[in-house]
């Protein structure tokens, strides 16, 4: 099956590479607006195949969406990344235009594709893609929760000196500083994390996770790509293999958690139809208040998008 990745920059190229070397798709199409970039990176990934032993066909194109026709999943990473001193929301004006035009092209050639948005500001770019594609909410979703949760799990593994494989967790809310940590739902090999770590240390890890993207922007002058690219590929895998994995995913809420018409990260079951089910956790009052803060923030940025269009 065919998967398209739009944007052959840091995140898009990483995602295409993971899709290829892990043989998640049979065919990967990489698209960029900059002449030759997607072609070059796709060729590089293909030339790695005899070394790393995979046979996923990888093709790059400059703006030729006819080559993306019939894609089962499309990952959209095109858009500006932030620089130090910027928030993700500062990217809205430029990236909304890019996500809109890319989504319109994609849907022309792959009307049934599930679209996975990566471009920032994530929740609102997912909203933009939903408006532009007019597809059902289960098929227009955003990647952030897997990444935010992975950061939290990695920090915990480091602190507890255990394998990251054994940390299970879920975070909710928008992709930003208002994300909603859920230590109550975090386990270490099945043991509640609260039995393994002091509260002040856990609080510090939660705080670091909230600003995890910014930490990397400060270090590198641009945003992260290895974990984001892998996280997007993991969502693609769950969809194309109909794995029914349980992940936090950005999706339009339609009454779940008492929230309507807002894009937020929530735990879902991800399978061949995209979001198969939104899982509703029984949040306590503190968690509900944090989710409400997150909703208000995302709604404000959604209204900026409404004013722009
Ligand atoms: N959701 C997340 O968790 C997450 C994580 C990391 C990055 N991001 C976001 O992903 C986006 C990409 O980040 P990056 O580091 O790969 O940036 P990058 O600059 O390395 O790559 C972006 C690519 O998009 C291309 N592009 C721009 N306009 C295009 C268009 N109209 N059509 C096709 N391609 C176009 C550019 O030429 C460039 O190659 C940013 O908005 C960033 O903030 C999100
Ligand atoms: O921080 C960013 O701007 C990119 C991305 O959203 C991230 O969390 O790494």
Automatic annotation (TrEMBL):
<feature type="binding site">
    <location>
        <position position="32"/>
    </location>
    <ligand>
        <name>NAD(+)</name>
    </ligand>
</feature>
<dbReference type="GO" id="GO:0004459">
    <property type="term" value="F:L-lactate dehydrogenase (NAD+) activity"/>
</dbReference>
<feature type="domain" description="Lactate/malate dehydrogenase N-terminal">
    <location>
        <begin position="1"/>
        <end position="142"/>
    </location>
</feature>
<dbReference type="InterPro" id="IPR022383">
    <property type="entry name" value="Lactate/malate_DH_C"/>
</dbReference>
<comment type="similarity">
    <text>Belongs to the LDH/MDH superfamily. MDH type 3 family.</text>
</comment>
<keyword id="KW-0560">Oxidoreductase</keyword>
<feature type="active site" description="Proton acceptor">
    <location>
        <position position="175"/>
    </location>
</feature>
<feature type="binding site">
    <location>
        <position position="88"/>
    </location>
    <ligand>
        <name>substrate</name>
    </ligand>
</feature>
<dbReference type="InterPro" id="IPR011275">
    <property type="entry name" value="Malate_DH_type3"/>
</dbReference>
<feature type="binding site">
    <location>
        <begin position="7"/>
        <end position="12"/>
    </location>
    <ligand>
        <name>NAD(+)</name>
    </ligand>
</feature>
<feature type="binding site">
    <location>
        <position position="120"/>
    </location>
    <ligand>
        <name>substrate</name>
    </ligand>
</feature>
<dbReference type="GO" id="GO:0006099">
    <property type="term" value="P:tricarboxylic acid cycle"/>
</dbReference>
<comment type="function">
    <text>Catalyzes the reversible oxidation of malate to oxaloacetate.</text>
</comment>
<protein>
    <recommendedName>
        <fullName>Malate dehydrogenase</fullName>
        <ecNumber>1.1.1.37</ecNumber>
    </recommendedName>
</protein>
<feature type="binding site">
    <location>
        <position position="95"/>
    </location>
    <ligand>
        <name>NAD(+)</name>
    </ligand>
</feature>
<keyword id="KW-0816">Tricarboxylic acid cycle</keyword>
<dbReference type="GO" id="GO:0006089">
    <property type="term" value="P:lactate metabolic process"/>
</dbReference>
<dbReference type="InterPro" id="IPR036291">
    <property type="entry name" value="NAD(P)-bd_dom_sf"/>
</dbReference>
<feature type="binding site">
    <location>
        <position position="82"/>
    </location>
    <ligand>
        <name>substrate</name>
    </ligand>
</feature>
<feature type="binding site">
    <location>
        <begin position="118"/>
        <end position="120"/>
    </location>
    <ligand>
        <name>NAD(+)</name>
    </ligand>
</feature>
<keyword id="KW-0520">NAD</keyword>
<dbReference type="InterPro" id="IPR001236">
    <property type="entry name" value="Lactate/malate_DH_N"/>
</dbReference>
<dbReference type="InterPro" id="IPR001557">
    <property type="entry name" value="L-lactate/malate_DH"/>
</dbReference>
<dbReference type="InterPro" id="IPR015955">
    <property type="entry name" value="Lactate_DH/Glyco_Ohase_4_C"/>
</dbReference>
<dbReference type="Pfam" id="PF00056">
    <property type="entry name" value="Ldh_1_N"/>
</dbReference>
<dbReference type="Pfam" id="PF02866">
    <property type="entry name" value="Ldh_1_C"/>
</dbReference>
<dbReference type="GO" id="GO:0030060">
    <property type="term" value="F:L-malate dehydrogenase (NAD+) activity"/>
</dbReference>
<feature type="domain" description="Lactate/malate dehydrogenase C-terminal">
    <location>
        <begin position="147"/>
        <end position="302"/>
    </location>
</feature>
<feature type="binding site">
    <location>
        <position position="151"/>
    </location>
    <ligand>
        <name>substrate</name>
    </ligand>
</feature>
